[in-house]
């Protein structure tokens, strides 16, 4: 296993992915770096289905291991929305500060205990022999009352973690990778891949 292609063009995500997978002794490339340019229709009904759709689509263009993730924010007060539509919530071109403000606004009447939310991440791998593996990670928190923190991306500034007294955007990157939904799912995936390499 000398090459892994991660089905994303998001640089923030690639930075996290490379840090967490660095022990796999494989070159980790984004789709762009691998020269794969395709539009993928994510029409699954769950994080698992969407991650598998992405990984399978890219695997048709390479014999490397392909990883893909689908992740999002589930807000209990909003019936677990935006969920699998997190990236497309209010339109893909809408900035996250606008999306974040909209979610804060929707929760303006929510009591403290009703503000529970979590990030969910599912990683799917398609191996050269066609085997498909998925792993899932979550991080529980609550929707904050305002955006907070300079790090991270997406909805990071509004998921407040009471035990750390900050949002996921306020965590140092090493700490975030350790406890984040993506960090957990990626480490589980790294273990699965290592088992198969052993």
Explain what this protein looks like in three dimensions.
This protein has helices spanning 11-20, 47-59, 96-106, 173-179, 181-197, and strands at 3-6, 27-30, 65-75, 81-82, 116-126, 132-143, 159-161, 166-167. With 198 residues, it is α+β, with helices and mostly antiparallel strands. It is globular and about 50 Å long. A hairpin with a 5-residue loop joins strand 3 (65-75) and strand 4. Helices cover 29% and strands 25% of the residues. It has a single domain (3-197), classed as Maf protein, CATH 3.90.950. The model has no long low-confidence stretch (mean pLDDT 94).
Compact summary:
The chain has helices at 11-20, 47-59, 96-106, 173-179, 181-197, and strands at residues 3-6, 27-30, 65-75, 81-82, 116-126, 132-143, 159-161, 166-167. α4 (173-179) packs across α5. The chain is of the alpha+beta class and 198 residues long.
Cα-to-Cα separation, first versus last residue: 11 Å
Query: How many domains, as an integer?
Result: 1
Label the CATH architecture. Answer: Alpha-Beta Complex
Q: What fold name stands as the CATH topology?
A: Maf protein
- Secondary-structure content class: alpha+beta
- Hey, roughly how much beta strand do the residues contain? 15-25%
